[in-house]
Write a structure and sequence with these properties.
With 350 residues, the protein is an alpha+beta fold. It is built from eight helices and 19 strands. It binds adenosine-5'-triphosphate (ATP). Adenosine-5'-triphosphate binds next to helix 1. Pfam families: ABC_tran, TOBE_2.
């Protein structure tokens, strides 16, 4: 078992792209850690640099307290699952999964047992005798995941481990991955661009942009108190409402309403007010607006409200109270759930 420590790490490609840019990060022993960010932010490069598949230009990588920055991938004690799976085409699913044990000359019965157990958890039981060429993309991905788990490495590195699965299988694989990770207390770093997946699975998340970490925290911290407007925009199935406002006394004037001020700021300060759709309800008073869009989600409906000087999205109302387009409504933010960002985009009063 081992944690991962990264200090001042930069990875620059020969073409000059600084994919990882002076990054510090600590993954605790036994933690399930997500690297989350938009395409091109450097997640995969960071993962590959931890694995030793890319050479760090600057800084250090420590695994289990040991400096592995200049070590070969094979001696770092990590197992990695790639986006393209890298399965052995001539071996069956069972042989692929058990391969790491075979290399270590584990008894045949043990190889079979590990293959069957991991395969069962990843819904691969019926496929143990097939070869990769006879599998769907999702099945190949699960086989690769099962093989990486069988390595019994100190640290498991996963690049978009669930990206190829359909919605139902993704949920199943998520549950399995989390349970297995808990059981084995396996330090796991996984890359994803899917904020919902990171929120659901990870103990902690690093939100990345341009080779740097914008925020590092628990899913709750990152969801409830995004450190800046970039993170606020990126996290949440419906993005946070970000609206221009001005501090007036002990309130903030925003979209035609005077809202409670969440931070101690001077009168007249321009701010961006952040409010998550999930924390908005229809009320007798609050932010006045007119319904412009109603989206039916089954049990609830998502309402967009045009207010004075801004649009509020994601107001959730029960199906039986669904308003009509053109209706006048008031939306009220839940107490303590408003956030204020400065002109530089950083959370105020953090
Ligand atoms: P995605 O989610 O699309 O996989 P990512 O966040 O994993 O993206 P990386 O693949 O790490 O991002 O890429 C980070 C930056 O480095 C990008 O600008 C990318 O174009 C660049 N890059 C990646 N691989 C190489 C390479 N081999 N040579 C040069 N530049 C590269």
């Amino acid at each position: 078992m081992a944690g991962v420590e990264i200090g001042g790490l930069s990875t620059v490609y020969p073409n000059g792209v600084r994919a990882v840019d002076g990054l510090d990060l600590g993954v605790v022993d036994g933690e399930l850690f997500a690297l989350l960010g938009p395409s091109g932010c450097g997640k995969t490069t960071l993962l590959r640099t931890i694995a030793g598949l890319e050479q760090a230009t600057d800084g250090k990588v420590l695994i289990g307290g040991r400096d592995v920055t200049r070590e070969q991938p094979g001696s770092r004690g990590v197992a990695m699952v790639f986006q393209d799976y890298a399965l052995f085409p001539h071996m069956t699913v069972a042989e692929n999964i058990a391969y790491p044990l075979r290399v270590r000359r584990a008894p045949k019965a043990r190889q079979r047992e590990v293959a069957e157990r991991t395969a069962a958890g990843l819904s691969l039981s019926g496929l143990l005798d097939r070869r990769p060429g006879q599998l769907s993309g999702g099945q190949q991905q699960r086989t690769a995941l099962a093989r990486a788990v069988a390595v019994e490495a100190d640290v498991l590195l996963l690049d978009e481990p669930l990206s190829n699965l359909d919605a139902r299988l993704r949920l199943e694989a998520r549950t399995f991955l989390k349970r297995l990770q808990r059981e084995l207390a396996l330090t796991t770093v996984f890359v994803t661009h899917d904020q919902a997946e990171a929120l659901a699975l990870a103990d902690r998340i690093a939100v990345m942009e341009s080779g740097r970490i914008r925020q590092l925290g628990t899913p709750r911290e990152v969801f409830q108190r995004p450190a800046d407007t970039f993170v606020a925009n990126f996290i949440g199935s419906t993005p946070m409402n970000l609206l221009d406002g001005v501090v007036r006394g002990d309130g903030v004037e925003c979209v035609g309403a005077l809202l409670p001020l969440p931070a101690d700021l001077a009168d007249g300060t321009p701010v961006v007010v952040g409010v998550r759709p999930e924390y908005l309800t229809v009320a007798a008073e609050g932010i006045a607006g007119r319904v412009s869009i109603v989206e039916n989600l089954g049990v609830t409906s998502l309402v967009t409200l045009e207010c004075a000087g801004g649009t509020l999205v994601g107001l959730t109302v029960p199906e039986q109270e669904e308003p009509a387009v053109g209706d006048a409504l008031h939306a009220c933010p839940a107490p303590g759930r408003l956030l204020c960002y400065g002109e530089d985009g950083l959370l105020l009063g953090a």
